Each structure stands twice: as C-alpha cells, then as structure tokens.
Amino acid sequence: MAEADFEAPIRELIGRIDDLARFPGDPEKEKEVQRLRRELTALRREIYSRLTPWQKTMVARHPNRPYTLDYVQALFADFIEIHGDRRFADDPALVCGLASYHGRPVCVIGHQKGRDTKQKIYRNFGMPKPEGYRKALRVMQLAAKFQRPIICLIDTPGAYPGLDAEERGQAEAIAYNLREMSRLRTPIIVNVTGEGGSGGALAVAIGDRVNMLEHAIYSVISPEGCASILWRDARQAEASATAMKITATDLKAFGVVDEIIPEPPGGAHVDHETTFRNVDAVLQKQLAELSALRADQLAAGRYRKFRNMGRLGHEFVEEDLPPLAVNPDNA
Fold this sequence. Notes:
- By secondary structure, this protein is α/β, with parallel strands linked by helices.
- The protein has 2 domains: 5-50; 58-309 and 318-330, Alpha-Beta Complex (2-enoyl-CoA Hydratase, Chain A, domain 1).
- Helices cover 46% and strands 15% of the residues.
- It has helices spanning 8-21, 27-48, 53-60, 68-75, 117-122, 130-145, 163-167, 170-182, 198-202, 223-230, 237-244, 248-253, 272-291, 295-307; strands at 77-81, 94-101, 104-111, 150-156, 188-197, 209-213, 217-219, 259-261.
- Strands 1, 2, 3, 4, 5, 6, 7 and 8 form an 8-stranded mixed β-sheet that branches.
- Strand 5 (188-197), helix 9 (198-202) and strand 6 form a beta-alpha-beta unit.
- The N and C termini lie far apart (53 Å).
C-alpha cells in the first residue's frame, strides 16, 4: 500500500474544489464549491474515523503536522530558549526554554524535526543526542527549583543511534533522565503530538499526565524496526504496527495514556488552529488539577503511575513506595 493511498479520494475532491475556485464571481460555481467543501469535511471525518494503525503511523509522520515551535508560538508567550548542556554542546533536535502560559511561568521541552531539507539536517530529523537529553534535564531541574510546571511535546522517531551519540553515553543520558524526571517536585504534563519513538521519546516523557493526539503513535520501536527484527522484512511494517498496539486508543486502554486529544477531521496537519485549541483546553484543565497537589504528592503519584503500568492483579499503594531520594536543589 502506498503511504497515503487512503487519502486518494480526499486529494481528488480537493482538486475539484481548486479547479472551481479559479472562477470567482460565478454564483453557480461558488455554490458548488461550498457543497464540495461540506462533502470534503464529511469525507475526511469518515476516512479518519477508521484508520488502521499503519495509516495512523503515516498521519503521525505527516510533514505538515504542528511541531514544538508551532505550539510554542500558538500557546505560549515570552518564550526564551535555553541552549547547551554545559558539558558538550547544544542539540537543536530538542527545544528547551521558559515561557508564560496563560500568565503562569512554565518550562517547555519538545522535539523539533524541521520542515525543509536544511532544517531537517540542522534538527537531525528530531532525533536527539545525549547533549539534548542533558540539556532538557538541566532546564527541567531549573524549572523544578523555581516551581515552574513542565510541559513536554513529544515527536521523534527515536534517539539518534549514531556512533558519536553512543560514544558520549546515549543510553546513560536516557536512563539518567528517567530516574531524575520521576522525582522532580513540580507538575509535568507530557503530550505525544506525532511519533513517540522508544527511549528517545520516553527520556522526556515521565509525567504526571501523559496525553496523545488522536492520530499520534507511541511505541518501543518503529513498525519498520519491529518488522526487521521479527520477520527480517521491513515490508511487514503494516502487520507489526497492528501487532504492537501503538495507537492512542490502545495505549489509553492499557493505562499508558491518560487522555486522547481529538484532532480535526483530516488530522492535525490540515487545521493547526483547531489542534492548538484542543491541546490548550486539555493543558489548562490538567495544570489546574496538578497545581492543587503538594510537591511530594506529585513525585509519589508519578512514581506509582509508571510502576503500575503493565501490572495485573495488584496496584502499588503509598505503602509500596520506597522513600524518595530528593535532590536538595529541587526540594
């Protein structure tokens, strides 16, 4: 199946609308355009209501989906980007900074893929290196010190697997982030906006609330990677996407995701503004809920949330939790 075969009827209808729109001032043609636009909305809603996991993977990777800097521009004010990990370098694949959200100071962390070839190379296709994760943690620890909530936007194929990244401790950087994020004493809200790929996503996704856009995906490996391992054939990616249960609906049923954020008909890439409004509504609600909790409640609840994932027949309670080792700088 071609990547966007399921969108062929949509593209055909858009072509008819564009052809008619070239004749402004003709009442009959304008009336037909309005009818076709209503038909287009209904067609998008119908097609996108029955996407397969592999088709959702294609939508999650669509190059016109909003990226972190788009969300920053739409939802946050006074954004100040912070660069560098104070050890090696800056990593443009992860955008980190301080901003204002509806008048409240927050920290924003997110992957940035890039639109054109030049940007994609500069952003390393949204695949962070160890310095990116160390930068993100440095900024999050700064936010925790000043009691700023942290908002994470996840959209990456995974951590960069190159030799230079491995030499600088890619696995250690990810593991360290997992431990440290689990005990930060400030609200953390995670939003998977496109691809949530493996440890590259999880390294900045340990949150009190984890949300997914309706057509995003979140998995331990890409469908192509899974197919290459299990079937020795990357062409089996469609089958592996179904088997891995990578969609928002599946993951909410498993308790990995707390809330599914609806996308406009046709996906987030066709209507950024509606997507921003939907994300904004969920962020405001969850931030109000988390702000009512004490710092120790946040850390303990976050730890319990992730320890409970995948368990059958028993849930951790407060008595199950070992004492939290608190960094004095984040107390």
